[in-house]
Structure formats: C-alpha cells, structure tokens
Amino acid sequence: MTEHRDSVDIAIIGAGPVGMTLALALAGGPHRLRLIDARRRGAWRSDPRALALAHGTRQVLEGLQAWNLNAATAISSIHVSQHAGFGRTLIDASDYGLPALGYVMRYRELAAALDARLEDSVLLDKCSVLGVDSDGQRAELTLARPDETWRIKAQLVVHAEGTPGNDGAVRVCDYRQHAVVAEVKPTAAHDHRAWERFTSDGPIALLPLGPDYSLVFTVPATRARELLDLDEGAFLGALRIPFAHRLDFIACGPRASFPLALRMRRQLTLGRQVWIGNAAQTLHPVSGQGFNLGLRDAWELADTLRGCAGGDAGDAAGLASYGRRRWIDRSGSAAFTDGIVRAFSNDLAPLRHARGLGLLALELLPPLRHFVARRMIWGARAWP
Questions:
Q1: Phi and psi for 66 in degrees, rounded to 5?
Q2: Phi then psi dihedrals of residue 346, to 5 deg
Q3: Which residue(s) pair with 136 in the sheet?
C-alpha cells in the first residue's frame, strides 16, 4: 500500500451539500482545504430524495453561485390545518415581498450545482476515515483509499456527515414515528401551494415538486409498514382520508420509510474538531427545518473561520465563539419542531381545540403569523 502524507488548515469530512457549502464559502480565503468523502465523486447522481429549501438558503446558494433556479419548484403559499378539528392558516410569500417562501429541489440537482463550483484538487473521494486524533496543537486523520493510505494533519477537522449517536454527548428523543416518503401525482395543478396537515398520528406534508408533490407521511412504526405494503390504489385512498378528500391523487411513485428522532449534540466543538449539519443535529421533518439549519451551520462556521485569530482555524476561542453563535438558532429550531410534534401528534379533545384556536390566531393575527413565517424562512435569528 502506498502511504501519502498531507498537511492542510481545514479538513472537512463529508462532501454532501453541507460539506460542499462550507468548502465553497471558504474558497479563495487564507486556509488550505481538503474535502474528504467516502463515496466516489458524483455518487449523488442517483439520489432521488427531495429537499425543502427555505428562501434564506437560496440567498446563501446564490452568494456561492450555486443556485439552480431551473431545478427548483417554488413554494408560493403554505396551507396549515388539522384533521378532525377546526382552524387553519395560510402563509403567503406575497406578504413578505418574496418570490417564494421556499423551494423544493432534488438532492442530486443541488449537489450537482455545488460540485460544479468545487476545485478538483480540494476533493479526496472514496476515503474511509480510520481515525481522528486531536490535541490542543493539531489534529490528524488516518484515511484508507483503494490500495493506499493517507495521513492528513490539520488545524481543524470539520465533521459534516453522519448523524449523532446514542452516547452521553447527544440528547436523543425518539418520536416513535416513521416518515413514509414518496412522490404523488395530484388530479389538479398544485399552483405552488404546500400543505401541512396535522393528524393524531403525526404531520403530513405535501410539497410541490415539478407537477407532482413530494410527500412526507408521518405515522407510528406499525402503520408505516402497513402503508408500504398497500398497493398503489389503497395507499392513495389512505392519503385522501386525512385531507378529508379536499385533495385527490391519481398516481404514486416508489415508497420508503425511515424512523424519526431528535438528536442534538450537546457540544459542537471538542479540541480541534467541530460538528455541523446532520452530524451536529437531526430534527423532525415537520416544517422542513433540518437541512436549512445545517446549511446555516456551514455558512456561520465559514464566517467564524475567516476571522479566526492569527489564521489558526482550530483556535479554541474562535470555536467557542462559533458554538455560542449557533446556540440560539439550533436550540430554537429544535424547540420549534419538537413543540409542534408534541402539540399536534395526539387526539386529546382539549388539545385539539387548543390547536384549532392556535391556528385561528395565526390566521387572524398577522404579527404572530409573520413571526412563524420568518422563522421558517431565515431561522431563529431571522437570518441572514
């Protein structure tokens, strides 16, 4: 085996959208970068997932010249309501002078736009991370590639892939729910309206994607297995019920499911290491906050590193400052999504009535509705 040695200022583990965003935000600055990924470059081309992108995320990507408008489906309005209860509210982009509240884009389209901006020399793909050793002075990564090993010394190691585990450094809340995801074709044009419908099992989101909807159907684990086993007609019938037949569907693509939990790394930094994106936190998909929060992690970390003392990317004071700056947005986003799930995922009559009053208040009190909308668009700080 051939052994390579390298020395950089910042090593970023994970070349997904969050890792690539950080690399692009730091490009042209004083730091030498290395972006490391376990997959071969371009593996994302076969990824069918859809992402909900807030308008604030569009602003970040435009700043990096990585916004693909032709691949994005705009969300002009969001209809929020509950099944078997009164109250609803409508959030509209025109109230904020924006072209859209957000967008829906396939993962592969976003990854392609970011990848096209990367310098070839920055990326080291097909790498397995064998270990990360970190002390107060330096960090060192040991990597394995086909027929070769790499040892990379860095001032700072950024973890931008994976999810927080089940150790004491991570706060975990298992929602005992699964998200069933698919693409469904409506009988009528969606007119760029998204739907968030709350049921006793959990929220259901329909996000416009091209002429169709990207569906996130939240249910208990046993119900998820039942929905996956249904034939297409029966599944669409099950989807019509919580919408009280206000919407109708004529076709459904392949279905998949995954468990839902809140996972929050209590401390974002340790020695000369920092965690961002899904490596720092995973949220419930309600209101589509998770990916946008991760992108804000990357953008604010880049801002911190550009101003680090003496050019040392792993400077302890700078990393501590980054952790403090992210606390409001991270904790606020987690509390926002967690509170919605807990308040709406039940069928208790008093809470059902309270939810209806809350939705009615959002509709009748514009300042309250604007607070919620701005939080979804720009995060806890109405950022950027």
A1: -130, 25
A2: -160, 170
A3: none
Q: What is the pLDDT of residues 119-136, one digit of tens each?
A: 999 999 999 999 999 887
CATH of the domain at 234: 3.30.9.10
Mean pLDDT score, 10-33: 96
SS3 string, 353-372, reads HHHHHHHHHHHHCHHHHHHH
Q: Which of 298, 299, 259, 258 is nearest to 277 (CA)?
A: 298
Give the separation between CA 96 and CA 75, rounded to whole angstroms: 13
184 CB burial (10 A radius; 0-12, 13-18, 19+):
buried
Q: Output the CA–CA distances (angstroms, integers) from residue 177 to 118, 216, 285, 302, in the order listed.
A: 38, 12, 11, 35
pLDDT of 383 higher than 50: no
Confirm if 217 and 180 have CB atoms less than 8 A apart: yes
Widest CA span of the chain, in angstroms? 68
Q: Which amino acid makes up residue 296? A: R
Number of separate domains in the chain:
2
- Beta-ladder partners of 13: 36, 159
Residue 309 pLDDT > 80, yes or no?
Answer: no
- Does 323 share its domain with 186? no
Sign of CA dihedral 62, 64, 70, 72: negative
Token couple for 61: 């990507």
The answer to whether the beta carbons of residues 60 and 198 sit under 8 Å apart is no
Q: Report how far residue 153's alpha carbon sits from residue 320's, in angstroms, rounded to the nearest whole number.
A: 21
225, 113: one domain = no
Note whether 322 and 304 are within 8 A (CB): yes
